[in-house]
Amino acid sequence: MVVSSYPTKSFRRTALAPGILAAIVLLAGLALIESSAFFWIKTVVAILGAIVGVYAWQSKQWWWLPFLAAIVVLWNPILPIELHQNYIWVILQYVAVVLFIVAGILIKVPNPDDRNAQKQRKR
């Protein structure tokens, strides 16, 4: 086993990667709102919203769940919610981008591999 003298972080930002990916998909989806390909944007965003929701649950930051559940419901491709004005979708896309990025940065899961915490427990 290789032991490093560098400290490890006490948390992981597990929601950061799916949050950034969802933001990229949402921004790319702005060009596809009126096309049939928007179905796939909705599918990916709903799945990534559920993944970020699981990470929020694991980190015990439950206040994110209503916002992420709203994203999963609005972008749900199975039972779609049709908003007849495209400008509403554009606004919601930008709001969701901000929400995913902020959630990705702020949702932190404790790091089980934290060597600093293990050293303190042994003392």
How would you sum up this structure, described in words?
By secondary structure, this protein is mostly helical. It has one domain (11-122). Helix content is 60%, strand content 3%. The protein has five helices and two strands, in the order βααααβα. The protein has helices spanning 16-29, 38-58, 65-74, 86-106, 115-122; strands spanning 11-12, 109-110. The radius of gyration is 18 Å and the shape is elongated. The protein starts with 10 loop residues before the first strand and ends with a helix. The model has no long low-confidence stretch (mean pLDDT 86).
Q: Number of helical segments?
A: 5
Give, in order, the helices and strands: EHHHHEH
Euclidean distance between termini CA atoms? 21 Å
Tell me the domain tally.
1
Poorly predicted ranges: none
Please state the average pLDDT score.
Answer: 86
Q: Which structural class is indicated by helix and strand composition? A: mainly alpha
Task: Indicate the radius of gyration in whole angstroms.
Answer: 18 Å
Binned strand content = under 5%
Oligomer: single chain
Number of strands: 2
- Globally, the shape reads elongated
The largest sheet is:
2 strands, antiparallel
- Spatial strand order of the main sheet: 1-2
Name the helicity range: 55-70%
